[in-house]
Design goal:
The chain is of the alpha/beta class and 331 residues long. Helix content is 48%, strand content 15%.
């Protein structure tokens, strides 16, 4: 690296002192140091300090890509609702300029412009928001929003937590991207504490066989590759279709009845939806439904890999423990 003239270092020091709020006396002290002494002893320290102040933010996203920001994001947009929730959990909601269609939590997101979805974005609105970061979900073969952002030299970060522990890690990473580390780290640590409590409480519990209902007409489930499967395992449950290779396979009614799950976990949007889930499985003669073991959780919180899924995991654990107690399986 080319050596700078001592006078240039002095100018940088003066500027640095102003940025750091040092007194003018401190500036005069360093300026009065003989140039040779400054160049030999103090210049390396100055370069290290200025380099640290100007250091880029470098993180790795969930696709393994290195994402670099020259400064904390201040006008970010999201293309998935879970990403919106992660940003707010990290204490950075004020730095969102727009959100994905369907973002409805927390309530403050409803006041933000919608940019559409990742596959059907409104590029005009997205561009007009002058974003400095896009937080996306899984890249698809057709990824028009991410492609457009990259053409505009806007950084793209892919967020795709696959385990409950990864949600806490994601909140912490958001803190780095937005410069809200104190709030983000505190939130992430609180999540880790809650997860550790669940893991310890149910580590030796009698397994409960669980069917994850991801769709009813037609019937879909989630395999062992899903983050909800991780929640079931934390609670001492066993996903009866964990071994299927597809993330969200379609099933026949006969296959679900043959699996004879002890409990059904489903997402519901309201009480009518929850009642429909229970009555459908009762009508089909599923023993778990006959026993009232169809448990409905908030659909948005359950199916999004965001902070509220930890809330759902706590509820899920309570439901599975209810099954154990009814069957006399509590150790």
């Amino acid at each position: 690296m080319r050596s700078l003239e001592p006078t240039t270092h002095i100018a940088r020091l003066t500027s640095l002192a102003r940025r750091l709020g040092r007194t003018s006396a401190a500036v005069r002290f360093f300026v009065q140091v003989p140039v040779r002494i400054f160049a030999r002893f103090l210049a390396p320290l100055l370069l290290a300090t200025t380099s640290a102040l100007a250091a880029d933010i470098v993180v790795r996203d969930d696709q393994g890509r290195i994402v670099t920001l020259s400064s904390p994001a201040r006008r970010a947009i999201t293309s998935a609702p879970h990403a919106t929730e992660l940003v707010y959990a990290a204490g950075a909601g004020a730095y969102l300029a727009g959100t994905a269609e369907g973002s409805n939590y927390p309530a403050a997101t409803l006041a933000l412009p919608s940019i559409g979805t990742a596959l059907r974005p409104n590029l005009e609105i997205a561009t007009s928001l002058r974003p400095d970061l896009l937080i996306a979900w899984q890249p698809a073969a057709s990824d028009p929003l991410a492609d457009w952002m990259q053409r505009l030299n806007v950084s793209v970060f892919y967020s795709d937590p696959r385990t409950l522990a990864a949600i806490a890690d994601a909140v912490q990473t958001m803190g780095r991207l937005f410069g809200t580390e104190p709030q983000a780290n505190a939130a992430a640590d609180a999540m880790r504490t809650r997860l550790a409590t669940l893991s310890a409480r149910y580590a030796d519990s009698t397994p409960v066989r669980v069917f994850i209902q991801a769709g009813l007409q037609p019937i879909y489930t989630l395999s062992g590759r899903s983050i909800i499967n991780d929640a079931i395992q934390v609670c001492g449950g066993v996903n009866v279709f964990a071994d299927l290779s597809t993330l969200a396979p379609q099933l026949s009614l006969e296959s679900v009845l043959a699996a004879r799950p002890d409990a059904v976990i489903a997402g519901a949007t309201d009480t009518d939806d929850a009642q429909r889930n229970l009555q459908t499985w009762q009508r089909h003669g599923l023993p778990a439904a006959r026993d009232g073991h169809v448990f409905n959780l908030d659909a948005d919180a359950l199916y999004r890999p965001g902070p509220r899924l930890i809330d759902m995991a706590e509820q899920l654990c309570e439901h599975l423990d209810h099954v154990r107690r009814q069957r006399g399986l509590v150790k």
